[in-house]
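Subgroup meeting minutes
Present: P.N., E.W., G.H.
Scribe: E.W.

1. P.N. recapped why we're keeping a running log of single-chain structure predictions: easier to compare across weeks, and new members can see raw inputs and outputs side by side.
2. G.H. added today's entry (377 aa).
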Amino acid sequence: MPETTPDHPHDHREHEHEHEHRHAHPGSEPGSGHAHAHSHAHPHGTGRRSRIRHVVTHALAPHSHEASDRIDPTMEASADGMRTLWVSLAILGTTTVLQAFVVVLSGSVALLGDTVHNGADALTAVPLGIAFVLGRRAATRRFTYGYGRAEDVAGIIVLVTIVASCVFTAWTAIDRLSHPREMSHLPTVAVAAVVGFVGNEWVARLRIRTGRRIGSAALVADGLHARTDGFTSLAVLLGAAGAALGWTSADPIVGLLITLAILAVLKDATREVFRRLMDAVDPALVDTAERTVRAVPGVLEVGELRMRWIGHRLRAEVAVIVDANLDLRSAHGLAVATEHALLHALPRLDAALVHTDPATPTDGHDPHAALAHHSRT
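Output recorded in log:
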């Protein structure tokens, strides 16, 4: 919702000190706009000195406030994730096809488990791809925070896929232990195992690097999954070596070991997705935000600070304690300065809801007394 004033594009409507600014900066969500609700001038000021100071500040640590400037960086972040997913799908899809051909020739249970798991890992690109596409959609009256949470749903689907592949691998290995069968084409099985390792490690590096760059927990979790798959591919070599020595149980036993490895990565991936679903953030981000808010001139103390991830963007809510004698315009200016500082201090912050609380006056009057009976504590 672009707005117009001499210094800052905003639409000001009446509202109290609590307000939300959706500043546009690289990586902001599309369609979130730049919504204000105020009835007074913008605190950056209209004087020439204020304008010069504002321009210099943005030149040193730039971020755009225009809605049109915000869309492209977000699209680039999602496009980056999409490119990674489709490249992963191509690499693992090719690896899976090659390994499946060798499974048919050799009858290797260990390689079958590795092939199924690689195929399942490749297919996780589909829910993640859908999540990235949904994340580009603008917020609506029903989904007022947008569709960034689709990535968390995709993370759950990834976990379910890992569990399914784990169960299938274990069942196949146990069945082969009960019904032994000789394995053929051992050199080809060994080559297929190496191909599986190379393909998975390539995909793991790509997914983890991209996921950390754009802040996608689901993509990082999927990258960790692929990395473990690479080492389980190498484990297939043990089964082939055992079979070459005449130990027919070596191949299904390696299949069970692969199952255990899948369970290990499942634990790590589950922790990552669980934390995101529970709105967990790195405490270091909270520390940075608190230091930033306290450093804003005029802020006496930080009352309450909350942060959460929505997709791969952060949102924050913060209450700041200010001088009780400030007028409405000054309090609003302080709130804007606080949000502005946070936007520069936290690169992935999409918006901050800043509420100004007056310091308790000397007469002891509690400005929140009317809310006391609603408290849950």
